[in-house]
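queue> pop job 88
queue> type: inverse folding (structure -> sequence)
queue> payload:
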């Protein structure tokens, strides 16, 4: 029986205590659901892709020096090889080969979901008026959200063979309905 979203969430919460990292995992889950419909087989892929997004950084908080090996081992112990490989490949510098759209999409969505969130934090209307043009402009500013690896964003988009602006729009559109949950309402939110 495939790993369920509920089981993945419980595991994430067991290993990840901070609200910020849980929100990042949730944001990547949401974006990966949308990505399954754009870059994958749609509803057929949605749960698998969402769980990959949810779990991709599950071990980062407790074992940053061993990330993502503990999550990969945990998934392999459960017979979830597709998820394990996607998680093991979600950072290009690890040198893991990309065999399918799930793995490519996770690279393309992970850092960009976090970056779009950072863009929302400095805007009065947050995600509600955010456009790809603004995100692209911020991507050029190395001092803004400096920990976000822009190379990963560009590598993921290139691997998918899609336009950066269109991919940014996908991320914005996926996250916008979840602005309250993820804290993406901007500086003007009360």
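queue> result:
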């Amino acid at each position: 029986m495939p790993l369920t979203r509920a089981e993945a969430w419980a595991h994430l919460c067991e290993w990840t205590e901070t609200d910020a990292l849980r929100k990042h995992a949730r944001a990547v889950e949401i974006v990966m659901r949308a990505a399954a419909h754009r870059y994958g087989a749609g509803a057929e892929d949605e749960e698998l892709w969402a769980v990959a997004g949810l779990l991709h950084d599950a071990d980062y908080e407790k074992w940053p020096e061993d990330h993502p090996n503990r999550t990969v081992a945990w998934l392999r112990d459960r017979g979830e090889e597709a998820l394990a490989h996607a998680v093991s490949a979600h950072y290009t510098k690890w040198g893991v080969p990309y065999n399918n759209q799930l793995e490519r999409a996770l690279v393309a969505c992970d850092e960009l979901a976090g970056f779009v969130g950072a863009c929302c934090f400095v805007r009065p209307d947050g995600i509600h008026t955010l456009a790809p043009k603004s995100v692209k402009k911020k991507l050029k500013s190395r001092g803004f959200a400096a920990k976000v690896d822009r190379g990963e964003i560009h590598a993921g988009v290139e691997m998918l063979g899609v336009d950066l602006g269109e991919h940014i729009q996908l991320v914005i559109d996926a996250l916008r309905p979840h602005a309250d949950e993820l804290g993406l309402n901007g500086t003007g939110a009360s």
